[in-house]
Structure formats: C-alpha cells, structure tokens
Prior knowledge:
mainly alpha, globular
Amino acid sequence: MRFTWHWKAALFSAFIRCSIFFAVNATSGWRVASGAALAEFLYRLIASGYYGSITQALSRMQPAWKANMLAIFVLPLFQHLIEFAIHYFRGTPRLAISIGVSFGFTIISTLFNLYSMRRGSLIVGAEARSLWHDINAFPRLFWGFVTSGPRLILSR
C-alpha cells in the first residue's frame, strides 16, 4: 500500500485547527494565541497530510465499521500525543481545553472524511476530483453525513 501526502487534509486541517487553538487561547492574549495557532498550523500542515493518506486508505477497508473504529481510536491517539507534546513544550496555556477541542474535532472530522472519501470526495491521487468540486459537494456530503446515523437506525 502506497501513501501519498494528502494535501487536501493538510490544508483543511491546518486552517481549522489553528483557528481552534487561537480561539481557545485568545483569553491569554493575542501573542500567546497566535503562537499556539502557528505551532498548530505548522504541525497539522505536515502531519495531517500523512493522517489524511491513512484515512483515505481506511476508506477502502471493509467492513466499514472496522475502518471507522481504527480511524477514531488509533489515529487520534498518535496525533494528539504529538500535538500535546508540541504544545506542552512550547507552553500553550490552555492546553487541556485546546487538546480536548482538537480531539473532539478529530473524531467528527475523521468520520466525515471517511464518509466523503467513500463517496469520491476529499481524495487525492488518480481518482481525485478538484478541490473546487469537493468544496461544492460539502453541503450534500454534510447533510448525508449528519443523517446517516438516523437513516441506519430507521433501516434496522
């Protein structure tokens, strides 16, 4: 299995997560919040490209529930241990809340990415569509993702 740096995951994750770290740490001052946001942006720009590649590989795994479990229990563990270490050593003040919000976002975004990738969006490589196509598909994908749980329950 060949992994390619997943530039779409890196791009989205870096911008969203730096915003999370900035917002959570904003009460500590602009400079502190900016430092936490920059550290997170740089970490996610690198790491999320690789985690996105793993997520894309998991999107092809069957049964889907096993891939989902791996994606929400194993991947976040490694991501957030590294994230914690980076922010601990740089002195991010609201570390527990920052990591907690980031961890929660990881669970939801990873499941959304798996859902989207299984439907041909947010993928890189030979089967990839343009970023613009993926962005235009977000409303449909988001609605399908949000309603997938209730539809599954109703179908049983």
